[in-house]
Amino acid sequence: MEKGITKANNGIEGLSWNVVGQTYVPKLLSNDAFVWEATLPPDTFVPPHVHPTQDEWIIVQSGILEVEFLGDVHKAGPGDTVRMPKGEAHGIFNRSGKEAKCIFGVAPARKLFDLFIELDGVTDPQELVRLSALHEVDFLPPPADA
Q: What range defines the domain where residue 32 resides?
């Protein structure tokens, strides 16, 4: 990691990504960790997926998120920290009707930073799943009743 400060309204190297309607702004990157700020508009979500090589966490700054662990739903509000261990399937949903802002992180960083570069602006779900699998994020198939 390089020393320095990532200013409040900026990302590393001025980067910001649109990933399925959510805004991700990278704040810290090293081999050991990757941290980004996320803005999740109402009614957006990250479908259930697994990080087989990374622990992930979310610190909710504003709004309310629902995190599902294979049907087990937990609500997280401002100040709460969500812990998602590697290998544990999870989905992240903003069903609150209001914008949510959070800080996400993974350890180790592995390929996630590169994945977000690839996903910026991608809207096709099949392409999102394909690219994610190449970067060590495995999306679960949709439920049979979907």
A: 12-137
User: Residue 32 belongs to a domain with what CATH number?
Assistant: 2.60.120.10
Predicted pLDDT of residue 71: 79
pTM for this prediction: 0.92
Residue 144 belongs to some domain of the structure: no
Report the 3 state secondary structure along the chain. CCCCCCCCCCCHHHCCEEECCEEEEEEEECCCCEEEEEEECCCCEEEEEECCCCEEEEEEEECCEEEEECCEEEEECCCCEEEECCCCCEEEECCCCCCEEEEEEEECCCCHHHHHHHHCCCCCHHHHHHHHHHCCCEECCCCCCC
Residue 83: inside a domain? yes
Spans of the chain, pLDDT less than 70 = 143-146
pLDDT digits (tens, 9 = 90+) for 52-93: 999 999 999 999 999 999 879 999 999 999 999 999 999 999
Residue 143 lies inside a defined structural domain of this protein = no
